[in-house]
## 1
Amino acid sequence: MRRSAVTLGEVADWHNLAEAFYRAALGKRHRAEVQHFAADLEGELARLRADILAGTVAVGRGRRFRIHDPKPRTIHAPCFRERVLHQAIMAHVGPVLDRALVDDTYACRTGKGTLAAVRRAQHHARRWPWWCKIDIGAYFASIDHSILKALLARKLRDPGLLALLGRIIDAHAHAHAHAHADADAPGRGLPIGALTSQQFANFYLGGLDRLLLEQCRVRGLVRYMDDLVWWGDSRAEARAALVAARAYCGDALHLTVKQPAFVGRTAGGVMLCGYRVLPGRLLLSRRRRHRYAGRRRHWERLYAEGVIDALGLQAGYSAALGITLHAAAGDWRREQLRRTPLAGPLAAL
């Protein structure tokens, strides 16, 4: 198997690190840690370069916090210096991992994204009558470090680079164990919130995509991170591929497919990336409807409290409206306005 010749020296190249700084700082120049790094940019980059080449660069530092979107998640946000490191690594390693993926994988890839995934799913729904949808239980927390490192070693050959990636993968094992009293054994889990984690997690399931397309011969497939849908000519074909997918996830990747997995007719639609995908139209999921209603209430409250003016409210409405775009949601929005009309000074706008 041919492996990439990307080296640790290319990651530590001065120009690569400088570009990584500007990508990591994009939209964050007001933050104190970014300003501190930028105040001595040449010195910081020189020290980062030396640490990378020496194999002593610090990894796993950052802050941890909880969000609810829509379920509770623990986010591990790397410190700014490590974000620069991740950007520098992925400038060279990212394209290598991307080439290993099938075209119908849509997360964390240039020119892809949720809308492209939904449109592709609708294309398949117009052609094939049955679908099967799975997702992975506690996906990021369940990724096996030894398997991930072995997969990376099949694509990269520079020992120094592989050692650095291994240190990044291992760095959060103790943090995960401290955050979860019932955590799995050491050697599992990637932190949500790091650029490297997103890329590694997307790459980790690449073999499952190829199994379904090349061995199970499913008619069509769309994957967005660990949400995976495929299509077939019959319920039996969809279920046969499900059996193979479960076995591969358990045996080759040490992952568990959530129960139950769903099999249905395309005429009834399939949920993907916040939409109910039907052959002829897209409908909003319950989660997107709740998000739209919540953002609308948020901006109306800020206006009523005098925090924002009419122009700010209009901008907020535009942002909330973006949640419903691309779906057949006009009638639903009008019904929401009828049920909860603008009140008081808002109605005069």
## 2
Amino acid sequence: MDSILSPLYYAVSFVIKAIHTLLSPIFGASSGVSWSLAIVGLVVLIRIILIPLFVKQIKSQRALQALQPKMKELQKKHKDDRQKQSEELMKLYKEHNTNPLASCFPILAQAPIFFALFRVLNGIGKTPPHAYGVLTLADVKNAASAHFFGAPISATFLGSNVTTVKIVTVILIILMSATTFLTQRQLMVKGMPAASLENNPMVQQQKILLYVFPLIFAVSGVNFPVGVLIYWLTTNLWTMGQQLYVIRRNPTPGSPAFDEWELRKNAKNAPTISQVIVEESEETPIAGQRIQPKRKKRKNGKSKPT
């Protein structure tokens, strides 16, 4: 495993060390702020690189929603032949150049980086510490002394008996699970057309995952170092914000967010009360006021009465 992930050890440790070096003059080389922000910076860099995958994910999700009527027809037509049903669905996906697994691409792309970071931070917490990638032994010892709200960034819930570590890790695990749940719920409640929610097996699976994923993170989070929990919480917050931006500014047609977007658009284009009053006052003369004829401009710049 180390030989396979070795390039990622170097990439992850290089980014963390570079950001830490930039922040050290401000917060201090041994400061938990420097090392924590270095992990946050790693997330930001990765998510910027993954923006094309995120765009592809959105396009694929919308293409699948547009294909829902045809998918239902195929499922109804071949309800007694699962193999034929699968073949026809794959053919439909291929014809429309879409992939039902595209929604998993950003998570799958992050998985190797996640494991590499886990390994690097685990090396910091070992006794004696183990340096991975470009980190030197001095860097590792420096990082081992860094704390996040009193908890070493390499500490885990199960690997420590310190009360502060227990409290910090539990709070981070709760926040990590909650943001995962809210991100999934945000997509289902605001970003999906109402028609696609009815009798849709994929939607039913997403509803199950809505509760399963947070539970998985809550159970597995007790083994994650504090630094990894910071990484995962940050990437969840990024995903939530990115998804909220897309749902608000470029909603899926037919979704509740699309209806809200149209209301905002119509409200923006509607004339204000002051504009209506001004227009009415221009068209309706005041009692006793002589109506002045409107004048048209001639080509030479002078005006003539109309």
